[in-house]
Protein 1
Amino acid sequence: MIYVIATTPMKPENKDDFIKGHKVCTVETLKEKGCLSYDGNVSVNNPNQYVVVERWETREDLNAHGRAPHMKVWREYSAQMKTAPTVIEIISDGKVEKL
């Protein structure tokens, strides 16, 4: 099993649109092969930070997710709503990768 934690700093003025857009992305992601869970929430410590916690059956499923058409749409849509790039941590078999 693969766990992913993706943290994105949002521009305060775009927070509501960012969250609405991510909900659309979530609906499509949950339909993907190997997606066990995919949940996004505003951080309890920072109201302008969005945290997505994901679980995938395999690394191949996660890789396919990154290439999914709705992810391309999401990346383009959300690009101007961030104050910095998303930090992605991939956790598997006791190993953590930070992208």
Note: The chain has one domain: 2-92.
Protein 2
Amino acid sequence: MTASDTSSDAVAEAPAYCVHCGQPSPGGADHDACHNPRTALEPPRFCVVCARRMVVQVTPVGWTARCSRHGETASG
């Protein structure tokens, strides 16, 4: 097993976090406020893998969100 194998295993086993509040999604947090029509249009603010606050840039044609550890995500 190489170092890259262990890092990919760690990412695969990491819990998923809410992109709007940063709390663990499958756990005890109440996410009703995070899943409504208004937040459906909002860009993600937290990384889904590590819950770090992301750098978000909103433009007239979409948005980009960048995690310092996991890279960039863009609107469709």
Note: Helices lie at 3-13, 37-40.
Protein 3
Amino acid sequence: MTLPADTRPDSVTLRVAFWYWLKLGFISFGGPAGQIALMHTELVERRRWISEQRFLHALNYCMLLPGPEATQLAIYIGWLMHKTRGGILAGLLFFLPSLLILIVLSWIYMAYGTLPVVAGILYGIKPAVVAVVLAAAWRIGSRTLKNRTLLAIAVAAFLAIAVAEVPFPLIVLVAAAIGMLGGRLLPAHFQVGGKHPDSRASYGVALIDDDTPTPAHARFTWPRLARVALGGLALGGGVWLLLAWRYGAAGALAQMGWFFTKAALMTFGGAYAVLPYVYQGGVEHYQWLTAAQMIDGLALGETTPGPLIMIVAFVGFVGAWSHAIFGAGSVLLAGVAGACVATFFTFLPSFMFILAGAPLIEATRDNVRMTAPLTAISAAVVGVIVSLALFFGQHVFVRAGQVDIAAIAISAGACVALFRFKAGTIKLLAACAVAGLVLSYRHG
């Protein structure tokens, strides 16, 4: 039964919220845009738990933070409705289904990845992933590169990482410095880009409406900020020290904890932006997995619900399995441990940013000097993502020194489907998987 537009919905219990967030965790396909659209449709339009403007207000906070914005939005709304426990519940349920699915897929990949049917599916999906990454670059670029200054930052970032092989963290720092200077000298060039349409649509009176007073737990106080921040740091530091004590500071699990914490703080502009950093660390530095496995992991990550940054679970699983950190007879247990450690340290900062800092971010969200560095970082991210597509293309389109025409054809078809016909990612990957099976068996 639909409530009249002038009737405020009843209060939502934590139990009702639990079932909604759990359902969202299993159906949140389509990347950040799709996930945010799902929440908007259900929470703003149908259930009216939160008003349009309060929803966009929260979303704009999350877009200024490192980390997966859709996950942070879920944490924020859960926190606003049911305090800290609501935020933790919403965030956990948003990515736990994806973690469980990826653990199963990673196990199948490591145990049975050489089977013809699995190899054929991956053969079709990997060229499609190149097209998906290009589409992500186009989507973020069209939202971010509003002037020649930001376009120049994007081009410079592409050349820095693709030609000069500059580490991703350094690119982020330089872009932030340019943004800080630009925010003072050319503020009009560094206005926050990428906000979702500032629609004035109203779907009726909401439980948390435009004029609903900010609840007591959401008001900023320095003691609360310190308490939550110190609690988060103690939790993360305690888990890392436990891993270092039990398996050694140079062991794979402790290294993963430190590495994925740094990766989480680099995730401006979405998961695609941080993938080059994960590649540099996971493939080149720590050698947890190979370049081919990294591409396969992204292909698997695209087929699961939840945030794409969950590819870190695949990296952790494969790294711990390959290095048999618990011994040759316990590779599955090792893989599960690696996936859980990578996920924990990747998402902990997002919980801390929302639970501790959302009120403080609200006070500064319209200050261009605060947001200009993030605008410059977002521009640099576009160039980094294009370099990622180039990297994947080099490994997917060339096999044993020979150009793979079939793979190029699949990728070209995927590009047409994404750019011209706006095809959904899951349907596209399914079609390309079928094409890969057909081609692999025909040439097998």
Note: DSSP finds 16 helices and two strands in the chain.
Protein 4
Amino acid sequence: MAKGYWVSVYPAISDPERLAAYDKLAGPAVQAGGGRNLSLLPSRGGRVVAHEAGITQRVVLIEFDSFEQAVAAYESEAYQKALVALPDGFERDFRIVEGID
């Protein structure tokens, strides 16, 4: 079965405190849904090299055992509560993608 991945890129972070409130809710929701964080945030020493139209802001990569599990975790009640904590006008590029077996 192919794995599923959440890929999030944050072009700009205008309210780091509200983002921290989201992180406190999202982390446990992701873990409860079976997700494993595969990336280290730049704010915690993670390195990013951006090419072409890329940005060096926060990039998050989370792995799930299946694509269906990744979708279910996003749609879960716990993660939906975390989304409410994101700041108004917040911008991110979020995708759920299916891996290759």
Note: Strands lie at 4-9, 36-37, 59-64, 93-98.
